[in-house]
Amino acid sequence: LCGVRTLVLEREARTYHLPRAVHFDDECMRVFQTIGLTDAILPHVILSPGMLFLDADGKMLLDWSRPQTPTPMGWNLSYRFHQPDLEDVLIAG
Q1: Number of domains within the chain
Q2: DSSP 49-91
Q3: pLDDT(33) > 90
Q4: Is the residue at 5 inside a domain?
């Protein structure tokens, strides 16, 4: 998009079958928007309400609640996804 020639080389012939990442934010969604993939990605994500971190006794260590309204970037702050599905969309795009 900026006139920089780019080559991406992948070691693997196929996407790895297990997820290694599960979350991205509004800034990542803006990147997906810039490359024209949001319509293809949205069916594969869910808005994340956040997480509660508990210790072994069930005592709450951290309440990491996420707002369910768009940020100034125009997207929500927290999305959950299954990495192999997202990689398939990125490769196809």
Answers
A1: 1
A2: -EEEEE-TTS-EEEEEE--SS--TTSS-S-EEE-HHHHHHHHH
A3: yes
A4: no
